[in-house]
Amino acid sequence: MADSPSSRASAIAEHAEAMRSFMAHAVLFQDAVARSAGLNGTDLQALGLLLSDGPATPGELAQRTGLTAGGAITTMLDRLERGGFVTRSRDAADRRRVLVSAVPEAVFAEVGPVYGAVASRWNEYLDTLSEEQIRFATEFLARAAAFNRDETERLRRAPRERS
Q1: How many CB atoms within 10 Å of residue 85?
Q2: What is the pLDDT of residues 10-50, one digit of tens each?
Q3: Boundaries of domain holding 34
Q4: Number of domains comprising the chain
Q5: Torsion of the alpha carbons at 63, 65, 67 and 68, rounded to the nearest 10
Q6: What does the alpha-carbon distance between residue 112 and residue 103 come to, in Å, rounded to a whole number?
Q7: Which helix or strand (DSSP H or E) is residue 139 part of?
């Protein structure tokens, strides 16, 4: 049986509201996690990128995080290095390049317990779902992340419009 147009429109509107709420609370949660570790949101996201994507030059990390103003990336890296969250080393292949690496043990010591508590709650919920539902949810989140990444890149490339 096909959905009625009004039922589908209502479901899409409910989905849009749930997505807005999810995105707002995800950002606020990440900010709270960062603050619990004595960091700011950009610091935490930079650490996440280094953990997931591996070492990067300061320039590459600036591009990934969107930090483009003057010495902002250097200031952030100095702060993260002082906190023991990252190390800087010379690239073995090109000694002129500096590579920044996350120190997983330090990052996980600070934020692991918070993420562990959330993961525990998620795992309890996932236990109530079928494998098919979990696979759908995984695909949904992967696509949402890809859309967000693509739109972030588009917004960073677009000239800022003034009204």
Answers
A1: 26
A2: 999 999 999 999 999 999 999 999 999 999 999 999 999 99
A3: 11-128
A4: 1
A5: 20
A6: 13
A7: helix 131-157
